């Protein structure tokens, strides 16, 4: 399978200028294709959308037409346009009349080079240029995290106001020793949420709860900072139709950098949470993850505040990250409907009122437990294909607690975020309470401790070979 990692660049002023020139030249290629199709449309001809047809048009333009951009980089732009055009055509054919073909110009377009056209040596990357131009040598922020023989392509782009490189590698599925590979017959249910991004219920009554309160706090603090920044810069903002001053462009650039930092923090926290789930499943040889798909609630109006929570949830990205890591570990993922799982008793299968808190209590069989774990147990019973699922009676097992977003401010030393100001009222702030440890477990009597063989923090519990 293919994995992509984003690495920053350390550039001189001349190297930065050459990188922007390449992105602008790619934007010129994109604009050329739009212009050609505009003339074809006015003449009543068929638009040029096929990759081979676009490559023939590029060959007719001759060398040196698009500055230092070489033939491979220009063809990657044509491939991007062709994929966008045929994707829009397929969606319109399926009935999505609101989808439009690519007709908007872009100033900067990402450029991709494939295997054999670039060279990676340690933290030095050599990118090709047009004939007669010297190659572009750039320095990476870190060493490429993939083996050198697995790198298939690199992409130069501008993301969140920073120039960076996306490195794509082809990695094999993880291999395990005999008798330690995940068993497809061992099924675990996964319930997605906001407070707990992942609640996993596995065989034998074992459970895993990944807390996402630090992610939610990061969203709230970032929203408050954004509102405060907008109020402070409202006077210098240009009106509609004005270009804006140099001071305003600098302000917008700083805002983009802060927004990009926030996005990277959230993305890293989601990766940590998904890695915890996969590592927990690999330790218990779970080969099938049945995930409840909650995307049906996105189209239901639930008020201004709850709609904001759903917008910040990033359900699609969470599912994609979990699916990619599970595929790399050799674990199958099934998406099922999760409707009614939070209001169904996992022991007697009867409908009960959905609790307002985190504890579910059944008046029919006297079952009591965590609401998200109970929903995960019910989701596990909906595994397609007739695979064995959790037993009807849930035994007492260890519930492992983890926290996602250990890199976020305020989660390592204290609960209070360092960006928060002390209260305006006088008096003592009280004793600082330390944050809970990175790993804990519920005081449920069990015969064994699943954390006995736990790896040190920062070390993988499974390594691809």
TrEMBL record:
<feature type="compositionally biased region" description="Basic residues">
    <location>
        <begin position="243"/>
        <end position="253"/>
    </location>
</feature>
<keyword id="KW-0233">DNA recombination</keyword>
<dbReference type="InterPro" id="IPR010095">
    <property type="entry name" value="Cas12f1-like_TNB"/>
</dbReference>
<dbReference type="Pfam" id="PF01385">
    <property type="entry name" value="OrfB_IS605"/>
</dbReference>
<feature type="compositionally biased region" description="Basic and acidic residues">
    <location>
        <begin position="222"/>
        <end position="238"/>
    </location>
</feature>
<feature type="compositionally biased region" description="Low complexity">
    <location>
        <begin position="382"/>
        <end position="397"/>
    </location>
</feature>
<dbReference type="GO" id="GO:0004519">
    <property type="term" value="F:endonuclease activity"/>
</dbReference>
<feature type="region of interest" description="Disordered">
    <location>
        <begin position="382"/>
        <end position="465"/>
    </location>
</feature>
<feature type="domain" description="Probable transposase IS891/IS1136/IS1341">
    <location>
        <begin position="179"/>
        <end position="296"/>
    </location>
</feature>
<feature type="domain" description="Cas12f1-like TNB">
    <location>
        <begin position="317"/>
        <end position="379"/>
    </location>
</feature>
<protein>
    <submittedName>
        <fullName>RNA-guided endonuclease InsQ/TnpB family protein</fullName>
    </submittedName>
</protein>
<keyword id="KW-0378">Hydrolase</keyword>
<keyword id="KW-0540">Nuclease</keyword>
<keyword id="KW-0255">Endonuclease</keyword>
<dbReference type="Pfam" id="PF07282">
    <property type="entry name" value="Cas12f1-like_TNB"/>
</dbReference>
<keyword id="KW-0815">Transposition</keyword>
<comment type="similarity">
    <text>In the C-terminal section; belongs to the transposase 35 family.</text>
</comment>
<keyword id="KW-0238">DNA-binding</keyword>
<feature type="region of interest" description="Disordered">
    <location>
        <begin position="222"/>
        <end position="253"/>
    </location>
</feature>
<dbReference type="InterPro" id="IPR001959">
    <property type="entry name" value="Transposase"/>
</dbReference>
């Amino acid at each position: 399978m293919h994995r992509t990692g984003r690495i920053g660049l350390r550039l001189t002023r001349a190297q930065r200028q050459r990188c922007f020139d390449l992105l602008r030249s790619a934007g010129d290629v994109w604009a050329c294709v739009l212009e050609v199709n505009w003339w074809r449309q006015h003449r009543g001809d068929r638009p040029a959308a096929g990759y081979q047809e676009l490559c023939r048009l590029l060959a007719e333009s001759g060398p040196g037409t698009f500055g230092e951009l070489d033939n491979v980089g220009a063809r990657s732009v044509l491939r991007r346009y062709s994929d966008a055009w045929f994707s829009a055509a397929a969606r319109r054919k399926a009935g999505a009349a609101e989808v439009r073909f690519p007709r908007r110009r872009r100033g900067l377009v990402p450029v991709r080079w494939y295997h054999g056209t670039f060279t990676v040596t340690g933290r030095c990357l050599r990118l090709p240029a047009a004939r007669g131009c010297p190659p572009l040598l750039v320095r990476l922020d870190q060493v490429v995290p993939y083996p050198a023989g697995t790198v298939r392509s690199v992409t130069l782009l501008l993301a969140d106001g920073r120039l960076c490189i996306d490195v794509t590698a082809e990695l094999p599925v993880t291999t395990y020793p005999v008798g330690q590979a995940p068993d497809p017959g061992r099924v675990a249910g996964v319930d997605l949420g906001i407070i707990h991004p992942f609640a996993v219920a596995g065989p034998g009554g074992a459970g895993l709860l990944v807390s996402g309160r630090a992610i939610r706090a990061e969203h709230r603090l970032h929203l408050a900072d954004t509102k405060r920044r907008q109020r402070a810069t409202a006077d210098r903002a240009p009106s509609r139709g004005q270009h804006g001053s140099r001071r305003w462009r600098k302000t917008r650039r700083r805002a983009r950098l802060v927004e990009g930092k926030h996005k990277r923090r959230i993305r890293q926290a989601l990766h940590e949470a998904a890695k915890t789930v996969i590592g927990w499943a690999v330790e218990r040889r779970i080969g099938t993850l049945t995930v409840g798909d909650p995307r049906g609630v996105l189209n239901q109006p639930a008020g201004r505040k709850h709609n904001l929570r759903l917008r910040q949830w990033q359900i699609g990205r969470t599912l994609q990250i979990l699916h990619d890591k599970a595929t790399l570990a050799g674990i199958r993922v099934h998406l099922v409907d999760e409707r009614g799982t939070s209001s169904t008793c996992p022991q007697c299968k009867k409908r009960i009122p959905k609790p307002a808190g985190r504890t579910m209590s059944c008046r029919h069989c006297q079952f009591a437990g965590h609401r998200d774990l109970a929903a995960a147990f019910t989701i596990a019973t909906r595994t397609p294909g007739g695979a064995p699922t959790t037993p009807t009676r849930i035994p007492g097992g260890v519930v492992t607690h983890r926290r996602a977003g250990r890199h976020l401010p305020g989660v390592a030393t204290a609960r209070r975020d360092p960006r928060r100001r002390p209260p305006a009222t006088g008096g003592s702030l009280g004793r600082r309470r330390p944050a809970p440890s990175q790993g804990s477990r519920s005081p449920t009597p069990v015969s064994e401790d699943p954390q006995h063989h736990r790896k040190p923090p920062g070390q993988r519990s499974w390594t691809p070979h």
